[in-house]
Write a structure and sequence with these properties.
alpha+beta; globular; two-stranded antiparallel sheet
Length: 155
């Protein structure tokens, strides 16, 4: 971040499982134009150097071999809030993703042992600020950026 290496502790098994379930469901629903994957950086800007590693990224399939992944390759980023990342995921990353022009942002709040909550946001391209979308618990039934249904009640 800002040209500095930021050390983050490893995610929990619950966090990783949730990311995988979301990525698999988004990948299946997105169609051939889009891929959904985990564990790679998105270059938000070059100066100052700002890379982020969202928990899930939906990106244009035809950019799979292009590095670095740029915001104009990305349709949706998902962040799963973990202890220690609350402020970054709820405030800092939201502003950075919006400024970079990424059209959709989802934030997943975990409540162990409860069912996660999924907050969805849509970018207002004129103001580069996210507008509140739907909130889901149990089953995500989103229609944007494409129709997808994801059961997260058994995580």
């Amino acid at each position: 971040m800002d040209g500095l290496i930021t050390v983050c502790r490893s995610a929990s098994k619950r966090h990783n499982r949730l990311a995988r379930i979301l990525a698999n469901a988004l990948d299946a629903a997105a169609g051939p134009e889009w891929n959904a994957d985990t564990d790679f950086d998105v270059r938000l800007q070059d100066v100052p150097l700002t890379n982020r590693r969202p928990d899930v990224v939906v990106y244009r399939a035809d950019t799979i071999d292009i590095t670095p992944t740029r915001p104009d390759h990305v349709l949706l980023v998902v962040e799963i809030v973990s202890p220690g990342s609350e402020t970054t995921d709820r405030i800092v990353k939201v502003a950075q993703y919006a400024k970079a022009g990424i059209p959709f942002y989802w934030r997943v709040e975990q409540s162990v042992p409860g069912v996660p909550l999924v907050y969805t946001y849509l970018l207002d391209p004129a103001s580069r600020v996210y507008r509140d979308g739907d909130v889901f618990t149990g089953v995500v039934k989103a229609v944007a950026p494409f129709s997808v249904e994801i059961d997260i009640s058994t995580i």
